[in-house]
Amino acid sequence: MQLEPKKMTAVINRLRRAQGQLGGVLRMLEAGSDCADVVTQLAAVSKAIDRAGFAIIATGLEQCALEGEEAAGIDRAKLEKLFMSLA
Questions:
Q1: All domains of the chain, ordered by start, with CATH?
Q2: Fewer CB within 10 Å, N- or C-terminus of the chain?
């Protein structure tokens, strides 16, 4: 199954922000920053990546569910929110 690039814009943006955060973590480590601060930022990066993954899965599920059916009765944002609530 191919993911539609238009539906992946928010995920791509989230991953780019996470990439920037990860760069910040590396700079913190190189500068000898406080352990707690580094771990806090690393946890934020991890959460952003996890959420991006769940969003990709939710989009894939939506595409599977809608294959051959009309999309009128199913709201993508609602489907994603429901799936994300399980995480």
A1: 8-85 (1.20.58.1000)
A2: N
